[in-house]
Design brief:
Trp Operon Repressor, Chain A, alpha/beta, globular, Alpha/beta knot, 8 helices, two-stranded antiparallel ribbon, binds S-adenosylmethionine, 250 residues
């Protein structure tokens, strides 16, 4: 199985590829491991890979263009590979998922840093988001290593003793975080939502709460169970109810 990891810190993986079971699996050709340095795909003099978030707020957001270029380049080498993003907002990674992924020929893992990744890259280039647990790490590399390790152990021959021997900021509010956007304003035809460019912080906060509730509802509805909703959250649900009523009646 071929693994490629898109990262801003390839050195974190150097020891991983060259240690223990993974090293043996690489040298016996059962797996291959490629660390792809995202900064090599930045186009400006300073090799910029992050920028300030549209709509304001703290932290930086990873720009979509270097990521898109790094991914396209990797896909030329391993066409057809599934692309997964390490994210605390993703589907919890478990043994069942590892078993399913172990039957793939190739896997590309994208590692986020800072506040996360521009949403347009996520929606256009990522097949699946996976989380290694309900806690927030500083980057995706540790999770990528956990995922690769658990999958590799399930590949026949990797453990030596046979396959039998191989027999989880967003959660601080209890919700998944809202979508992020940074420069450019238009990326591959997709525009940043107008409200984030408006400078109207009350409206931006409202948009973010709604985005957050929507994402939580779609991705982790279990987080909404037994939640005591605030008046603002209830107002969002009321708005959705009215929109749904209108849709159903047409
Ligand atoms: N602001 C983001 C949020 O609240 O959802 C968290 C960003 S985190 C500081 C930076 C990167 O670390 C993420 O883009 C992701 O790639 C990785 N990461 C953090 N926690 C993770 C987890 N539990 N599972 C997988 N990846 C994680």
């Amino acid at each position: 199985m071929k693994f490629a990891v898109l990262t801003l810190f390839p050195e974190m993986l150097d020891v991983f590829w060259s240690t223990g079971i993974i090293r043996r699996a690489v040298s016996s050709g059962l797996i291959s491991g490629d660390s792809v340095y995202i900064r090599n795909f930045a186009s400006d003099r300073h090799k910029t890979c992050d920028d300030r978030p549209y709509g304001g707020g703290c932290g930086m957001v990873m720009k979509p263009e270097p990521l898109a270029r790094a991914l396209m380049d990797t896909k030329e080498r391993i066409p057809g590979a599934l692309t997964v993003l390490m994210s605390p907002q993703g589907k919890p990674f478990d043994q069942k998922t590892a078993e399913k992924m172990a039957s793939l020929e190739s896997l590309i893992i994208v590692c986020g840093r800072y506040e996360g990744i521009d949403e347009r890259f996520v929606s256009d280039y990522v097949d699946e988001e996976i989380s290694i647990g309900d806690y927030v790490l500083s980057g995706g590399e540790i999770g990528a290593m956990a995922v690769i390790d658990s999958i590799s152990r399930l590949i026949p021959g990797v453990l030596g003793g046979g396959i039998e021997s191989a027999e989880l900021d967003t959660f601080s509010t209890g919700l998944i975080e809202h979508a992020h956007y940074t420069r450019p304003e238009i990326f591959e035809g997709q525009k940043v939502p107008d409200v984030l460019l408006s400078g109207n912080h009350k409206e931006i906060d409202k948009w973010r709460l709604e985005s957050s509730l929507k994402r939580t509802f779609l991705k982790r509805p279990d987080l909404l169970e037994n939640r005591t909703f605030t008046a603002d959250e209830k107002a969002v649900f009321k708005k959705w109810r009215e929109e749904l009523k209108r849709l159903v009646s047409v």
